[in-house]
Amino acid sequence: MRAYKPKDDVQAKSYYTDRYYVSPQVPKQTPESDEVFNADLEAIKSKFDVSDAYIQVEQLVIFINASDIYGVLEFMRDELEYTQLSEMSAIDWLAKDNTFEIFYQMLSMNKRKRIRVKYFIDNGQAVDSVEKLFRSADWSEREMFDMFGIEANGHPFMKRILMPYDWHGYPLLKTYPLEGDEFAAWYEVDKIFGKEARDVIGPELRDTAKVDRYDSERFARLGHEVPKGTKITGNEPKSDQNYQEDGGVFLIKKFDKKDSVVIDDPQR
Amino acid sequence: MAQVKNRLTPFFENITFDREDNEMILNFGPQHPSAHGQLRLMLHLQQEMITKAHPDIGYLHRGMEKMAENMIYNEFMPTTDRMDYIASSSNNYGFALAVEKLIGLEVPRRAKVIRMMLLEINRLMSHLFWLATTALDIGAMTVFLFAFREREYLMDIIEGYCGARLTHAAIRIGGVPLDIQDSFITQLRVFLDKLPQNIKDYEDLLDTNRIWLMRMEEVGTISTEMALSWGCTGPMLRASGVAWDIRKEEPYELYDEVEFNVPWSDKGDNFARYRMYMEEMRESAKILYQTITMYQKCVKDGQTELMAHSPKYISAPKIDIMTQNYSLMQHFVLVTQGMRPPVGEVYIPTESPKGELGFYINSQGGPYPYRLKLRAPSFWHTGILTDLLPGHYIPDVVSIIGTTNIVFGEVDR
Prior knowledge:
The complex is a heterodimer. Chain A is an alpha/beta fold. Chain A has six helices and eight strands, in the order βαββαβαβββαβαα.
């Protein structure tokens, strides 16, 4: 039976997981365990909805509504001294519940604290741009769009940033294939000779630089090549490689490699 | 229909002059030698003055975040070398630290000291490289040769340690793979003793050099607000009036035990950034002297451990693997399947030579990170060119790109 490959997440999977294995959790603390974080959280809670908050690895994580993001970041910047947006991006949860998780990594230099603001959006939903608050979001949001296809409303230049403008697909989605089209090697064979000739002809060599690492005989036999399948005796004559077409080339009447002079000395 | 008329002009068949103003669009890079890698800048010019700048990146994009999602944690370590390839141990370290925080590992003291030595050597290498290339861009060939000569000594020391000169992969999750070689400290001492004179040589050549001053002073001024808004970190931020150094403010490793200053300036121009790099080299040397003492104390106290002891995540020492069956089995599982950190997420910033290098890891308990975001400082230091370049002249572009110290392995990832 062919192994089942889920289409919604084609990324590498562990080939073996013990069925009794239970993953441990990175410990979480309540926000009350840190005075500064608690005060900040209360301030944010007084104005906006906070659905969940905890401290993990010395940083506060809060979950808010997607529509509040501009207000929350503005409030944090102006009132709570979180003056820098270090990083923002998305996490793909499409396979789990068809959502994206967006996170904003905020830094307060005066308090020496970092808060991660998070929210969920549905597939196809756009986020509100915070580029007006933090110029660094200009490129971050473009990168997020480039990698996940999540658009930011109000962004001045919503174009791809790392991938070419005409690229198809969004590379960091879990559905994005890890290798090229496996059927492409048969396209031309099927079209010209028909499917039944596959066994005779074999797949098209699409990687011209490919070296068959298990071919210990034809490895590095430049100038002594034999047709594929021929038994190699070791006494093959040196084959002159003439790359000239049968009908001759423009301006060259008769080319014979043996009669021509090869100039080795460029300083002659 | 001005275009039609112009198209008939005999000498300019393919060029249409449909603009009324004098605006010219200049493509700077991506193969320009002073673009420091693969930066393409689209500059709108009014005479020689830049009115609009549009940095275009992605020419070195290798999809490292995607690669990380499909590699076991230890496998990804050599890939991080290729981010900031001028100081690759800093990237190794940032990643190792993030995974250690995720697992909750405590690294042995001797390994910490060796890591700090490597980090500071990398900082010196990076700053010397910056000085050399920027000076060359401005035309100071002598400084280039001097700085590369010194960098070569450091590369030799690093090569003696890990066998590589650029892509070190010298740090492991949980510690360091090797103790430093016998000649390490002697060589480092020789280098450090010479360094103050070397730095003075560079400064004598540059500090009062008229050309250098004209190209640097009051060029590319970044205000504090602009630097904060654009997410600038490291020397870029410190030159703009914010004395923020993660080593000092959120100390990791043993940076709280060593004494060093955080140089800063409120000028924000190219010259301030140049001064930042020079002063930071002095501070790095100061830290390195202290780590040598710390290392010798470790030796004296008989602290020989180099890797954390955590059989679930870290392979046992080689001697155990070769003699004990269970260690061998665990090693086999860790190499073939990879470690499985707990479910959770971390964002760990470190002070790399370029600025704040952060690793965000979201682990779902599998051997592959579910999401790994690389926060590379140069990404925003390139972005700021959009706002920084307008109002400057074409020659200033070269000196501004120089002082932002961007490395494209890190910008494009």
